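Dear H.,

Thanks for agreeing to be a second pair of eyes. The structure we're designing against is below in token form, covering all 86 positions.
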């Protein structure tokens, strides 16, 4: 079974989630769209809000959050996949 490249999976996850959070913040700022989601995510991502600067801060938080989560996921997947082969 092929293993995940841990760093690549973490980067891909982090970039994808960071961009999503950034766009969510911009949509709240420009169109008042997704304000309930922004309120929910604000509880975990300090500084995130529906503004340009808040969107950048949220994007950074989102990247860091899922970069670490993606690394953990890929590492666990590789461990479980190698155990299943034995």
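And this is the sequence the design step returned. I haven't edited it by hand at all.
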């Amino acid at each position: 079974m092929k293993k995940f490249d841990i760093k690549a999976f973490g980067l891909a996850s982090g970039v994808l989630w960071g961009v999503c959070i950034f766009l969510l913040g911009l949509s709240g700022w420009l169109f008042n769209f997704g304000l309930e989601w922004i309120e929910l995510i604000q509880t975990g991502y300090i500084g995130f809000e529906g503004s340009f600067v808040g969107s950048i801060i949220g994007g950074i938080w989102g990247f860091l959050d899922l970069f670490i989560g993606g690394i953990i996921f890929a590492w666990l997947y590789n461990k479980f996949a190698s155990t299943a082969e034995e």
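Two observations from my side: Helices lie at 6-31, 35-42, 52-85. The chain has one domain: 6-81.

Warmly,
E.
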